[in-house]
Amino acid sequence: MARSETLVLGTGFGGLTVATRLAQQGHRVRCLGNGTPGASLRNFGQLHSGAVYAPVLPDLAAACRDHRSRWLPLLGPDVARTPCVGLFDDPAAVAAYTHAWDCLRIPAQPLAPADLPALGLSQTDASAAAFLLPDMAVDVTALHAKTRRHAKEEGVLLAPEESYTLVRSGNSAVLANTANCFRLAESVVLSAGHHTPRLLDLLGIEHPLSVSHLPYAVLEGSRPGFPLTYRLDGDLLAVSPQDDGLHVALPGRSEGPRSEAAEQYRLAAALSHRWPHLPAERLAMRWGLVAEITGDRPDPAVTVVDLRDPPPGWGDADNLVVCLPGKWTTAWHAADRVAEVLSPPR
């Protein structure tokens, strides 16, 4: 096999966007996955504008603002989407968010109470203020299929889904499949989401990553005309309409699964408080998994690390780059950074 081939491990939005950018740059790219859905295909399907992060994570908010438009040509008119509303009961929170939106130039349109019923909400759902936000919930399964087709059109070879692992050969990462066939590439990009820490562990490479468990729940079979809705004060409840029902989440993550009963009660109580007419007792628990740099405060920002010249806290490898887009909205931003690391082939 020619060593000029670049391997991208991961066929979620992160892996596909990296593979596409590298192919556009002139690399011969093979993209491999293990067939399991990534976090972006299991959770909420938000195409973020940065609005919900603006006061607390302004850098992430700016990245979402700057790169979300790169998804719009792939969305097209055939991918279902729903609008987004931010609701407030606290005037102080309104002031904080509107100031942050102004600073970051994120357009948020004030809504009058009379505007809310047309969006599937009640006039009483926000006592302080409501805004139409540039976020949207999209059919991520349909978008993922279009992203795969776009990658192939750009010249990416999408290998059949199979189980694989990484092993070391000297100080290089080598791909091994279930038939013990080995593949060495000049460059390997590891963009495998929450599998990334385990694969680095298998290689014996030091890293500061941990896997967080994100609880959420689904009100199955129930799509009562809700928009994507954020309570931007108080409990910070988020509700997103998806094909399988209404997805419901509150802030919170841990390095291990917490009590499912306790999390279900927490979500059901919040949903019942906000929308008593919804059958919160029917919520079915789910768990999302995400790999992030370990720290006191979660930071779902782009992480791209060149292990040929690693920063402190990371081990080294001669041919390996780690890419974690954080939010799939910013996957193209992460792909740009990988393309900068792996300069065009000669």
Automatic annotation (TrEMBL):
Protein name, entry field: FAD-binding oxidoreductase
Stored Pfam families: DAO
Signal sequence range: none
InterPro entries (UniProt xref): FAD-dep_OxRdtase (IPR006076), FAD/NAD-bd_sf (IPR036188)
Ranges of residues in domain FAD dependent oxidoreductase: 7-340
Top-rank lineage group of the source organism: Bacteria
